[in-house]
Amino acid sequence: MSNILNEVKQTCGICRREPFKYTCPKCDLKYCSLNCYKSEDHLECTESFYKQNILEEIKVQQTDDEQKNRMLEMLRRFEQEGDEMARDEFEEDYEDDEEDDFVERFKDFDINSTDFEAIWNKLTSSEKAEFKSKFIDRKFSENQNNLSELFEELTIWKPWWEKESKKNNNNKIIEFVNDEYNEKNSQSEILQDNDKPIVLKDIKKLEELTKKPPNPNLVINLVNILYTYVYTCRYFNGDIYEDPEETIKVIWQLSPILRNNENIIYENVSQAIVASSNVILQNPQYSQPPEFLNLILNDIICLLSSLENILSLLSDLYNLFHLESQNLNLESGNKPKKIITTTTTTTTTNTHKSYYRKLFLTEKKIYFYLVYMNSTGQRKEEEMDELIILKVLKSQVEIEKEKRIKELEMYNKDKDNIEELIIRRGKKDEKKLDDNNNNNNNNNNNDLITEI
């Protein structure tokens, strides 16, 4: 997992200080440690987890007397070891026959078929605590250690636009495993040695696609496409080709430019950024800390440093949609020609056609931007620098970045001030309450003296 991603992770949902490392499978809470997992704020899931694991421990036992006795002996053993805590809860009349009482409680239970709640409710609080400590917390801790080791072994992905030199092929993340495309679209034809996507060959001239010159503000739309691309790459940790359909779904949700058939033209860079960043902020699935969104702006600035970066990015997007279209065609070609038409099959066919058409339109739109940006490097006008457009965009994105950093600083400052005011108000209210209590006590004492 990327070191950069580790810096911008969401914080723990319990302590709200440390970055989260794990996710509760029951409620999707992000947490950083076992202590936070066992917090009172997470008690409902914790109890459920304990009960589920204890039930599994009980159910693996057989119903024969020998296995049942082993289970009872195990429960009796941890009760004996924890009898110091148990004595405070047992009545004095039962201190001499604790073991007999334990056996008496469970003698009529069929461990394999009895309802778990009935078994759990028969245990004392000390027995529950001891069982958790011996069999659940230990196992949970071992699982967490295994997860930590697994995270450390994961290949670290670094965006291709950040690489200054060729990297070892062992660090590659994007990889094609579909044999259907091995001959025509092998990975070597899509990626360079440093994972940088190869620019498409034989790009058409702009005049071949349109006779009238495009809107000058069209280049601003490029910022929205860049924002969507870099966010999607980081969201999938570089694996944008692993599940193309899911990747494309994210791209369509984040970019109005690539999602809509309408010709959207943004008036400024801020609009192009907000169009995607608002989706991220409003959708819990994509929500990230403000630092992550600033990282995206850094990525855009880095990409705008060269026209080749832009052409590589657009080529990568084009390949993604083109390959998904080809894959869809192959799936259609493998289906029988004679199909009995039903409402379900008709709906499925229409959905299939709609998806394919949307892929096709987005693919063509990306190719148009590729042609348009490629044409900026081929202009022969006097004093025309191919990077002028990119430099202007880059400076405007840098301004947006600085503005957002200041907004974040002001937000954090206001947040600290509000928290400080709340603490002061709380202390003031506590003092006022104490003073009222003291006054009431004094009044009661005076009334008592008067009566005497």
Molecular shape: flat
Order of helices and strands: HEEHHHHHHHHHHHHHHHHH
Biggest sheet layout? 2 strands, antiparallel
Number of beta-strand segments: 2
3D structure, described in words:
Residues 436-452 have a biased composition (Low complexity). Residues 12-45 form the HIT-type domain. Keywords: Metal-binding, Zinc, Zinc-finger. By secondary structure, this protein is mainly alpha-helical. It folds into 2 domains: 38-153, no CATH class; 178-336 and 356-403, no CATH class. It is 63% helix and 1% strand. It is built from 18 helices and 2 strands. The chain has a two-stranded antiparallel sheet with strand order 1-2. The longest helix is centred in the C-terminal third of the chain and has 64 residues, at 388-451. The chain is flat, with a radius of gyration of 32 Å.
How are the SSEs ordered, and which strands pair?
Elements: H1 3-7, E1 22-23, E2 30-31, H2 34-37, H3 43-59, H4 65-81, H5 83-87, H6 98-106, H7 116-122, H8 125-153, H9 187-190, H10 206-209, H11 218-235, H12 244-254, H13 256-259, H14 269-282, H15 290-303, H16 307-333, H17 343-376, H18 388-451
Antiparallel strand pairs: 1-2
